[in-house]
Amino acid sequence: MTHHQSHSTFTRVFVVLAVLGLLISGGYAIRHTVSCFLSSFIIAYLLDPALVFLEQRTIKRIYGILILYLVLALVTFFCVIYLLPLITMRWDSFVRHLPDYFQKAREIVVSMKTSIYSAERAQDWSWIIDSLASKLETITSSAGTGVFNTASSMAFNLFNLILSPILVFFMLLYKEVIIASIKVWLPARQKEHLLEVGREVNASIGGYIRGQLIVSVIVAVFSAIALYLLDVDYALLNGLFAGLASTLPFIGVILATIPPLFFAYVKFQNGLILLKVIGAFSLIYFLEGYLVKPLVFKEAMNLNPLMTIVVVMALGELMGFWGIILAIPIAAALKILSTHWRRGDFTSEV
Question: Are 329 and 208 in contact (CB under 8 A)?
C-alpha cells in the first residue's frame, strides 16, 4: 500500500467515525423521538413479511395493511379487555407492597446479623450484613420515588403509543418508495456491493428480531408458569421481566433470576425455595439455549462476547430500552460491513 492509499484510507475512516459521532450525539439529543421512530420501524419490520405473503396472494398492499390493522385491533381489544386489567392489578399490588417486601428483607438481614454476632469467629465479616441492612433501608426509603419516576416515564411514552401506529402505516405503505429513494443516493460504482451488503444485513437482523421476539415470549410464558406453580409472588410480572431479560446476552439469565429469588426468599424464608427457583430457571434457559434458539435462529451471528457486551452497555446508555434491544442487530450489521470493508468491496471498481 502506497503512502497516498494509506492517507486516503485514514481519511475515509476518520470521516466515517466523525459522521458516526455526530449521528450518535444528535440521536442522544432527540432520543425520545428516536425511540418512537425505532419502535415504529421494528413493528413495521416485523409486519412486512405478512404483507409480502398477502401480496403474493394478489392482495394489494393497502388492503393488506388494512387486514393487518384489523387483526391487530382485535388482538389489542382482547389484550385491553382481558390481559391489561390483570397486569394492571398485579402492578398496582406490586407498587403498594414493594416497600413491605424491602422492610421484611431488612428484618431478615437484621436477624441474620444477630445470628452472626452470636457465632464465634464471625466478627470479621459481620460488616457485610451491616452494609446490606443499610442498603436495604436506603432502597426502602427511595422505592416510592423510583416507582413514581417509572410511572412518569410510562406516561410520557403513551404519546409514542398513539403516534407509532401512524408511522407504521406510512412505513409499510411507502416501503418501495423509501427503498427506491435510498438507492438513488448510493454511489454508482459501489451500488451492487452496497445492495448485497443490505440484503445480508436485512437477512441477519430480520431473522434475529423475529427470532428474539419468539424466544422472549416463550421464556416469559414458561417463567410465569413455573413461578406460579412454585407459589412465588408476582409470577406474571417476574415472567414478563424474564422475557425482557432474555434479550440481553450472557447477563440476562442472572438478571431474570434475581427478582424471583428475592420474592421467594422473603415469602418462604428457606433455602429450599431458592433451589427450586434456580432449578426452574436453569431448566428454562437450558431449553432456550439448546432447543428453542437452534430452531428459531437458523443462522448464528457468531459475535465476539466481549464486543457484544460493550455494544449493549454503550447503546443502552445512549438510547435506553431500544438501545439494548437493537444492540446485537447493530453489532451484527457492523460485523457484516467490516467483513466487506476488509475484502475491499467498497473500493473495487465495478
Answer: yes
How confident is the model over 118-165, as pLDDT tens digits? 554 444 445 555 555 555 555 544 544 444 444 445 445 555 667 788
Rounded CA-CA distance 238/245 in Å is 10
Q: What is the pLDDT of residues 298-325, one digit of tens each?
A: 555 566 666 777 777 777 766 666 677 7
| Gyration radius from the chain CA atoms | 25
How far CA 204 is from CA of 81, 117, 211, 281, 315, in Å, comes to 36, 57, 11, 28, 19
In angstroms, the Cα distances linking 329 to 137, 245, 247 are: 40, 16, 11
The C-alpha atoms of residue 9 and residue 3 are separated, in whole angstroms, by 10
**Domain ranges for the chain:** 193-344
Residue 240 CA neighbour count, 13 Å, CB half: 10
Grid cell at residue 312 = 449493549
Instruction: Report yes or no on whether pTM surpasses 0.90.
Output: no
Q: Are 110 and 132 in contact (CB under 8 A)?
A: no
Among all chains, which residue has been given the C-alpha cell 392489578?
89
Q: How many Å apart are CA 254 and CA 285, to the nearest integer?
A: 11
Instruction: Report pLDDT for 125.
Output: 46
**SS (HEC) of the chain:** CCHHHHHHHHHHHHHHHHHHHHHHHHHHHCHHHHHHHHHHHHHHHHHHHHHHHHHHCCCCHHHHHHHHHHHHHHHHHHHHHHHHHHHHHHHHHHHHHHHHHHHHHHHHHHHHHHHHHHCCCCHHHHHHHHHHHHHHHHHHHHHHHHHHHHHHHHHHHHHHHHHHHHHHHHHHHCHHHHHHHHHHCCCCCCHHHHHHHHHHHHHHHHHHHHHHHHHHHHHHHHHHHHHHHCCCCCHHHHHHHHHHHCCCCCCHHHHHHHHHHHHHHHHHCCHHHHHHHHHHHHHHHHHHHHHHHHHHCCCCCCCCHHHHHHHHHHHHHHHCHHHHHHHHHHHHHHHHHHHHHHHCCCCCCC
Query: What are residue 342's phi and psi, to 5 degrees?
Result: -65, -30
